[in-house]
Amino acid sequence: SDGSIRLHQMTSEYPLMQWNDSTKGQPIIALQWALTRPAVFFALDASSNIYIWDLLENDLLPVAKQTIPSEKVVTMTLLGEPEKANGLLGIVLAKESGEIDIQYVKKKWALP
């Protein structure tokens, strides 16, 4: 609810990494690991900002932020085929109006 993200290992109650105020205080409403690249995850905050984290490139801050200005995004999920090496990765955005938007991710964050 405060924009903090914690990375846990299943065998410990303490986080391996913790990023406080990663969304400038906005609640995170969706977070998902990339299906095609294990070190990348995406977070959606309550202000319709998508943050892309690539832990191999930078483990302190997101490597990119994209604002969806047209309408409030209420949730997101990722689509892709992890068994294929084509690096195709998409973000499915559900908007408040019920509209669904699919955006494809740059290859550098999608390739295995």
Describe it for me?
The protein has about 110 residues and is mainly beta. It has one domain (about 5-110). The chain is built from one helix and nine strands; from the N terminus they run E-E-E-E-E-E-E-E-E-H. The chain has one helix spanning about 105-110, and strands spanning about 5-10, 15-20, 30-35, 40-45, 50-55, 65, 75-80, 90-95, 100-105. Strands 3-4-5-6 form a four-stranded antiparallel β-sheet, with no helix packed on it. A three-stranded antiparallel β-sheet has the order 7-8-9. The longest helix has 4 residues, at about 105-110. The radius of gyration is 14 Å and the shape is globular. It starts with a strand and ends with a helix. One of its GO terms (cellular component) is cytoplasmic dynein complex. GO terms for molecular function: dynein heavy chain binding; dynein light chain binding. This is WDR60 protein. InterPro entries: DYNC2I1 (IPR042505), WD40_repeat_dom_sf (IPR036322).
Report a brief summary of the structure:
One of its GO terms (biological process) is intraciliary transport. The protein is mostly beta strands and 112 residues long.
